Structures are given as structure tokens and as C-alpha cells.
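Teaching note: in complex prediction, the entire set of molecules is handled at once rather than each chain in isolation. The prompt given to students was simply: 'Predict the structure of this complex.' The entities are:
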Amino acid sequence: MASPEVLLTNLLYGLTIASALVLISSGLSLIFGIVGVVNFAHGSFGMLGAYLGFSLVMATGSFWAALLLAPLIVTAGAIVMERLTLRPLYGLNPLYQLFLTFALSLVFSNLVLLVWGGDTVSIPTPSYLRGFVSIFGIAYPTFRLFVLVFSACLAAALWLFIGRSAWGAVLRAGLHNMEMVEAFGINTRALVTAVFAVGAGLAAVAGVVMGAMRSVNPEMDLDLITSALVVVVIGGLGSFRGAVIGSLILGTAESFGAQLLPGLAKFVVWIVMAAILLWRPEGLVKDA
Amino acid sequence: MTLLRLSGLRKAFGSLQVIEDLDLTVEAGRITSVIGPNGAGKTTLFNLITGRLPLDGGRILFKERPIAGLSPDAIARLGLARSFQITNVFPALTVLENVRLAAQARQPGALSPWRPAERLVEATTSAQAALAQVGLGALRDRVAHTLSHGDQRHLEIAMTLATGPELLLLDEPTSGMSAVETGRTMTLIGEIARRVTVLIIEHDMDLVMGLSHRVAVMAFGKKIAEGSPAEVARDPEVRRVYLGDL
Amino acid sequence: MRRALPAALVLLVLLALPIGAGSLYSDFYLSLAIRVFAFVILLLGFDLLAGYGGLISFGHAMFFGTGAYAAALTLKHLTPSVWAALAVAVVVSAALALVVGFLSIRAREIYFVFLTFAFAQFAYHAVNSWEWAGAANGLPGIPPPSLWIAGRLPVDLDRRAVFYYFALALAGAAFLVARRIVGSAFGRVLVGIRENEERARFLGYDVTRCLRRAFLISGVFAGVGGAVLASFHGFVAPTFYHWSVSGEVLLMALLGGMGTLVGPMAGAAFVIVLGDILSSWLAERWLLVMGLIYVACVLFSPTGFAGIARRLGALRDAAPAERAP
Ligand SMILES: Nc1ncnc2c1ncn2[C@@H]1O[C@H](COP(=O)(O)OP(=O)(O)O)[C@@H](O)[C@H]1O
Ligand SMILES: [Mg+2]
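The expected output is the structure of the full assembly:
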């Protein structure tokens, strides 16, 4: 069996992945919860965020500027996309939305190929976030620790926002029953757009930090959407808590899987998802 | 002959005991009614008998054979058909196809992926007979959801009838119907009952009194009375429940 | 009867297509048509399950790929007989569909979509890492198949026109079989399940068993489609299993209109031909434009070609059912 140091490293790395996964998957899950749309293009937001982040770092020289601006640009784009393409399809058979967002992801991935080419790039990080820090006697990459803390804080902020704020209360009601929210005279269209925009922005944030932690490549959208889908399917669609639980399961499964079953690393995601779905066909968490 | 025998049936939803220690027998060839105010647990009783919900306890014997735990389709194939309180048909299919599918279910070759559906002649014939019996023969090519509410209720009855059941469970067959339609439907049920054993649930006591051979009264998940319509009507407990209810 | 004339015309054109190939137009169009036939078989299988049974699979690439690999391995290691390759493809994809169907059909709707997606991704990674299946390189150099039956008919299928007629015949047969299934007792039950699963169950239909059977049939069709394409191309690669194939299948079916058989077949032809035109015209930008066309299609006609055709038809002779209140 592995040493305690290896276990701890894996656990930390698993949590790091998990915290980034929460950012990716919560938007996907919440938009499903309120309008029943599975946005297959959600991974594209992450990839666009990563490539924009790369270009912005190159242009401004500042990682922080990129981390702020790239998600804002993606958010703006997502708002346009939601208004123009998804909105006319709400309430129709969910297949049409799956089909539409699948086509949009095709458009985005080819857009990325045209603009940035097919190369893998990496986002330069600030020098003080490189190197290693010592935690409980192990050396852990500083940037990974940053990703863990930063994403966890954002996720916690989101949790508080959904749980405590007035907007959050409307959102929770919407997850439960959108018609009821409408009956209270609340502008549900604005609510949907807002959830969509925030979800896209968070995915872009995750794209930037994941891109800086690993690399940025044109297949990133598929990696991100599959991870996010697995997370929300494991956790239960339409539930923020489910997204958190699913992220923790998948993050640790990925980091330990890569360690314990190196040849099977690619399978771990699918084994975990199939196993959980077979056991609980509607995911682990069924509330909002 | 006893066709259906329930003993010690129990069902709770969380802390709400919906069916409590219920016994009931249905004799072949008779019309049996279960009446009780809304929320008494009548639909739940049907859901238990037809395998839609699992039992908490008790026994269900159909033709002296235990059926608790069987799947709804297996129970239906044994010859126990039900209708639903809220109309439950194939809304996008034609009236004839609705009933034909029902008639096909218990035919040999019902699941053949090769034999054309039209060649199951018997299914079409009995579907048309069932439609004629409920008076929907002229509407056979209409799409089901375009029918009036009353016609859809009749379609529902025709479907259960077309499966060729030995026992027919009707859940408030006249719910939502006008007075004229209700009268017509009760006559129809009387005709059907000449060939098939019928168990009806109904909240409107007066409706089934004239028709039934035997009546059981439910309130809050318990059977509070049972007997001939006349006996039940005299029962002080029943009067209290119904007068209190209205 | 109204449909007989267009159908006869299409058949005539298809039968005549090889005559001008190589002289009037490039041989390449025959290859394109063969690709369409392979996808037509795949789409017929998809439509049986999705359009009639109401179960949307997002993993049909797994059966397409499995049929392709089974045929390729048979041709490479056992016999050059195309019939043997098809038979093995049928058996192996049926076995896979049996297992995946058994496991997936407990879920419905979007969860079923994801389960099939998960199994297909699993298969994709498996094929990518199996050395005996050529791993990421796939299996090149599959010998050309022949119509060989016990030494009696050694017609090599390596001539494009011969393979064209072979694939056309197979696609035609697949269509007739699919139509027969749709009109069968079982086909009607499938539609009943799609329309109201609970009602079908209470009429006495074992819904799970029916859907598993539909899944099995659907997987076999997809496998045969893959086998046709693999024996034509002479190589297989993990791209047969790629999720984008499953996505394309969904697009083709939706574009054509599900639950019509003919619609998804037309969708397959449309997408493949359009893709070819766009890619030769727009070079590497073609997928971008293709994506935009898809977007436009779903925004302007969510019910596909069939919806457009039905709307046109409705103008001409509105069915009584549609006129009723
Ligand atoms: N699936 C269920 N879950 C929870 N409670 C239920 C469910 N079905 C019925 N009930 C409750 O059980 C009681 C009996 O309902 P029902 O059997 O429908 O009564 P009836 O048909 O006599 O009007 C009601 O209080 C109802 O709210
Ligand atoms: Mg009731």
C-alpha cells in the first residue's frame, strides 16, 4: 500500500480537482434544474476561458487580469448565446436543446481551432505561485494549492449566495418549481439568463485555472464537459449539493485512480459514473 | 367462487397509514364496490392490488394465487385489468390503436417483431367489439387526445375491457362526467358486468348502490362496513362518515 | 401510392449512379454513397430505438465501432467472406447490446442518454488501449472482402461499383426489415411504450423486456452499418467509436425527423453529402459552418425535414385528426 505521504498528496490533488470541478459543473447542474436544459456547450465556456486567458496573459503580462477578464468576456458571450439560441427552445423536447448545444460546441471548438490553431499552449503563472510549498511534511505545488483555495472559496461563496441571499432563494424556488416563481411575478427570463451567465463565467474561471495547472488544448472542451456531466449525473442533476458531492467523488477517483491503476486512468471516470448510475439511476442527491 | 381475496393489507406513506389491516373478497360474477370519501385510500388499494405500489404487509390472492410482489404487467397478464381515476390512455394514438394495443397484450404473438400487427386479427376484432360496446365505434380513427373528456373515460374502459380480463378494476369511472354521461356509463358497467367480474371504487355512494351486489365502505384506510347495499346504507357508522363528509 | 413515385425515382438514380462514375463524375461519389449506405443502416437502428421506442441513445458509436472491428478482425484473420464478417459483426454487436441494454434500460430520458454515453466512452478508451485491436492506430490493411459462399461465388468486392451495389442492397434490405419491424405487433407496442409507458405496463406489456429487445435490434443494425463501412475502407480505427459519431447520429435523426425511418435516412445522406461539399469548398472552416447550419436547422425547424414535409403535406390534405378541435 502507498505511503501516507503519497496518500496525502493524492488526497490534496483530488480536492484540488474537485474544487475546480464544482466551478465547472454547478452552472451545468443549475441551468438543468431551472429550465431542464443539458448544455453540451458548457465545456466550451471553459475552453474559451482558457484560450482567452492565454491570450490575455500574453497581451497584458498579468495572470490576474486574465483571470478576471477572460470569464467576463465568456459571460458576455454566454448571455448573447442564451438569448439568441436557447431561449426559443425552452419548454420543447429536451432533445432539441441537447442537439442545439451539441452544434454550438462544434462551432466553438472549430472557432478555437481557427483562432488559436490546434496547438497545446500553457498559461504562464506568476512567479510567486510556482514552486512547492510544504504541507504536513509533503511538498505540494504552490499553484495547485492556489487552485484549491481559490476554487474552494468561490464555491463556498456560491454556496452562501444560493443558501442565504434573496436571489438565491428565488433560484432555489426555481429549482423546485419554475411556474411557481413565475406566478409570484418574478422575471424568470432574467433569472435564467443570470444563472446561465454566472455558470458560464464560473466555467471560464475553472478553464483558466485548470488550463494554467495542466495545459490548454483544443480537446479541453470535451474533457471538461464529460467531467462536468459525470459530476452532475453522479450527484443528481439540478442540485448544487449534488454537484459538490459529485465533484468530490470524481476528483478523488481521478487522482487516486491515476495513482493506483495507472493503465486505467481514462476508465476511472466512466467506471465511477456507470457504477453510480446503475446503483442510483437518478444520481445521489435528489433535492435542490 | 372467490376471485380476489385480500387479507391484512397494510400500506403507509411515511407516517401516514393509508391502508390499515384491510380484508376484502370479490366473488366471481358479482359487482363489488368499495366506497369511501376522498382520501380514504381507495386508489391506493387499487395500486396495491395491481402492483403499482409495494405492500407493507398482508396477502393478495387472485384466483387463489398470491400476486403480491409481481410486476404490474405480470398481474395484468393474469387477467386483472384496471382503469385509472385520472384518464390514462395513449394520447397521440388513434382510438382504435389504443384499444387494439390493449387487446393485443394477451394474444400469442403480441411481441413478435416480424408478424404485422394487422395479422393479429383477433386483437382488431376484440378491439372493435370493445369500442362498439362503449359506443365509440364511430370515433375509432380519431386521435385519442382530441376526444371529449367523457369519451376519453369510455376509451379508458374499452381498453381495460379489450385485454379480456377476468376481473376489472374501475377507479371512479365516472369522475368528471356530466349527469347524463354518468348515467350512461353506469348502464354500460352493468352490461359489462354480465360477462366480467367488476370491482368499482367510487366516492359517490348513491351512484353504485343500485348496481352493486356487495359494498364495502372505507374511511381513513379502514374498512368500516361491508354487506349488501341495503345493509350498508342502514349502517350508522357509514351514515356518520358520509354525513360528516358532506 | 403517393410515395411510390418519388421512391421509384430515388431507387432508379441510385441504381444508375455507378454508370457515370469515373467518366461523368469522379469515382469518389460512389465512396461517398457507400458511406451514406453504412450510416443509413446505423440510423435505421437508431430510429427504431429512439424514434419508435422513445429511448435516445448517445452511444451508438459503440455498436457502429464494434461491428466495424468485428468485421475487420474476421476479414483479417479468418476468411475474406463478407458474409462471415457480417455474421460475426451481428453476433458481437448483439452481445454488446445485450449487456449494455440490460444495464442501461433501468434509466430513462437524460439519464439513459448519459449512461449510453458513458458506456460508449468506456468502449472508446478500451479500443484505444487494446493492442490486439491495434490500439490508437487501429487495424490497417484489411484484405478486400469477397461475396464468397463456400467457394461458389468468388466475386471480389474490391471494385468500387460492385461494393456500391452490395452496400445499396444491404441498406435496402435493412430498410425493409426496419419497416417490417415498425409495422409488426412489437413495433406497435414500442410506440405505445413511447407514448405512455405506464399505460403499456398496466395493459400487460413487460416494458423493460420490450425496450431491451429494441435496444438489441438497434445495436445490431448499428453494428452492420459499421461492418459495411469497415469492409469498404479496408481499415478501422478508434474514430469509429468516437463520441462525435454518436452525436452525428443524433443530428442526422433529428434533422430528418425521428420516428419516420425515411427521415433519418435522408438526414444521414444530407449531413454526409453536405459535409463533403463544405469540406472541399471551405477547407478547414467547414465544421464551423456545419455547426452553424445545425444551429439554424434546430432553430428554424425543430422537427426536421419530416416536420417540413408534414407541414407541406398538411397544407395539401389536412388529415381529419388534425382538423378536429
Ligand atoms: N404516492 C403517495 N405518496 C404519499 N401519499 C399518498 C400517495 N398516494 C396517496 N397518498 C395519500 O394517501 C391518502 C389516500 O389517497 P387515495 O388512495 O388516493 O384516496 P382515494 O382514492 O380514496 O381518494 C391520501 O391522503 C393521499 O394524499
Ligand atoms: Mg382515488
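Point out the following to students. The two ends of chain B are 37 Å apart (CA to CA). Chain B has a mean pLDDT of 92.
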